Amino acid sequence: MLSQVCRSGFQSFPQRLLPWVQSTVLSRSRRIQPSAIRHVRSWSNIPFITVPLSRTHGKSFAHRSELKHAKRIVVKLGSAVVTRGDECGLALGRLASIVEQVSVLQNQGREMMLVTSGAVAFGKQRLRHEILLSQSVRQALHSGQNHLKEMAIPVLEARACAAAGQSGLMALYEAMFTQYSICAAQILVTNLDFHDEQKRRNLNGTLHELLRMNIVPIVNTNDAVVPPAEPNSDLQGVISVKDNDSLAARLAVEMKTDLLIVLSDVEGLFDSPPGSDDAKLIDIFYPGDQQSVTFGTKSRVGMGGMEAKVKAALWALQGGTSVVIANGTHPKVSGHVITDIVEGKKVGTFFSEVKPAGPTVEQQGEMARSGGRMLATLEPEQRAEIIHHLADLLTDQRDEILLANKKDLEEAEGRLATPLLKRLSLSTSKLNSLAIGLRQIAASSQESVGRVLRRTRIAKDLELEQVTVPIGVLLVIFESRPDCLPQVAALAIASGNGLLLKGGKEASHSNRILHLLTQEALSIHGVKEAVQLVNTREEVEDLCRLDKMIDLIIPRGSSQLVRDIQKAAKGIPVMGHSEGICHMYVDSEASVDKVTRLVRDSKCEYPAACNALETLLIHRDLLRTPLFDQIIDMLRVEQVKIHAGPKFASYLTFSPSEVKSLRTEYGDLELCIEVVDSVQDAIDHIHKYGSSHTDVIVTENEKTAEFFLQHVDSACVFWNASTRFSDGYRFGLGAEVGISTSRIHARGPVGLEGLLTTKWLLRGQDHVVSDFSEHGSLKYLHENLPIPQRNTN
Prior knowledge:
Elements: H1 2-8, H2 18-26, E1 72-77, H3 79-82, H4 92-107, E2 111-116, H5 119-143, H6 158-178, E3 183-189, H7 192-195, H8 197-212, E4 215-221, H9 244-254, E5 259-264, E6 284-285, H10 306-318, E7 322-327, H11 337-342, E8 349-351, H12 361-377, H13 380-396, H14 398-412, H15 418-424, H16 428-444, E9 452-459, E10 462-470, E11 473-478, H17 484-495, E12 498-503, H18 508-522, E13 531-533, H19 540-543, E14 552-556, H20 559-568, E15 582-586, H21 592-604, E16 613-619, H22 626-637, E17 641-644, H23 646-650, E18 670-676, H24 679-689, E19 694-698, H25 702-711, E20 716-719, E21 738-740, E22 748-750, E23 756-763, E24 783-784
Parallel strand pairs: 1-2, 1-5, 2-4, 3-4, 5-7, 6-8, 11-12, 11-14, 12-13, 15-16, 15-19, 16-18, 17-18, 19-20
Antiparallel strand pairs: 7-8, 9-10, 9-24, 10-23, 21-22
Helix pairs in contact: 2-6, 5-6, 9-10, 13-16, 13-17, 13-18, 14-18, 16-17, 21-22
């Protein structure tokens, strides 16, 4: 009979654990031998890491990023997490995943404790089957027929269910933890165990001894004997154990734990009942914020609700234990929710006693949204005036900006590579160039937002317009490039977009003053909040999850940063390029005078830039010619390290170091040289190893050049020009938010136009679609109308 009970609960359960669980639940006396456990840790897809875990208990963590230092952790599993949707039986697949995460953390040297529900549900499953079997036997004896469908199952008393389910639940946990070479122990408690001083000491001593022996205590209220909860029974600031929420909080404080993780069937704490139209997930909850929350009904199973969880969490927080309430049932996150919380990721609601000095990133997103909408309603002249004022501030406040930048450079010395230090550095000439670029943006902004692209007469007195509008809220993430901030801010202002900026900590002083100057410029027309600088400890991965606040992400930094953001962004488009592997092909008919100038400028003028030359393709006929010798001599003078491609190396007796990969962005004075047989061979090489960024041909043959320009599929393709021209400022765009190698929306240097989208405006006179039916009175005209010219004076 019990085997039927067990099998009915094994849906979606990992097959590798099925034999162990069945054997253990059916016969607790039969122990699993250690020799039967093989490659335990290889089963886990969570990386095994070692972290420093020394910490003096007494005060809760102030920030999520500190949770990785938690040594002692209590994980509370709510009834909705442990039980199946039919409330009869356990969610075994979910439990196996939770056990795996707890085991990984335990094997990292942490001290894990579980407070679990589920005994009542497991017992209910067993008792229902026993009742069905008993009734079917009696009916068969009396009538000779089985009428299972007509049988009514009586309401089962919860205490009886708990008594029947406790042993099976513990056997299940024991079987699961054994697979990770971890021993578990069961402890059943009641409220009296905490009120009796001797029992409290005994419980405390038992738990400490179990933790000392690397055993995971599994704690639960003894629901078989526990009396009904009494309302308002908390005495003298000590929480009464009414349910597993209060038990977990009491246990966490008694054991001086660093972190309490409460898993439920909702994402965390919302400001109103989840599912209501205006409900928003609260990222960080502070004591005293209860008045701003409207609690809904309790969960489908269990004794507590969110209000009980918050009360327990605040009591634990007051006792020095950090708390996170998160969803343990969502299939996409339940497999790593516990480890994500401990790693400091933005999961669920974090309870903190330390309020940040400024707004949260969610509040900044809302301010950027509303500020951007106000910005879009300004007249073009007003937006241009803001940008002009910002350009003036860059030159007027030059000394303060350079002083802040000097602090960044001093702090970064010895920590950043030379190319990154060059990007971090500001100078008077850079600020002057920035100011000139901003004034170009101001001039081009006159015809940006609200520009009519198309007009169509649909029918008489029914006219349609397509006009340009801002995208919405942009998130720009940049590394070691403080000059990026005013450029991007100016483009956002010109296009009427709200803007969130996340700069690298290595440029914090520079970014701070540049942002203050930007807000000063915005203040002249009352839109100061449109541009926000994220200064909190927000991880980039967490920012990429704000799909309801951000419309477009633009990364400015290393190829690794771009790849990480493209991977992390869920539901938010990312504009950018992961690499800048730029090629220059020197044709057999190239000019000797032009080649060395173009190669020097492309490689040596600013080797850290994404538009710097990385691979030089030489036509085979140019080897061992004066032109080739001049190129090599120039590179030696400029101290460029040469890497030989496979074909080039085959021509040489003593070659430079052979390139490890033909798909490499060096970002420094290093260059790959490879030999090709023809212009088509060069094109094929670029398509195979390039990044679709910028590629150049050097030749005097116009036909060959045009063939190259038309056939190379990159964002920027040049003839007899340096790769360094691939830049928004040099293109006359004023500045750029980045260079895009994608094929949708914008490609190449992305300036003002790339930050706009369109909307349709239809003006009619009581028009309805039925009038245009086969027997209707109106006909579609679809006439193109002239586009009015805007007055830009």
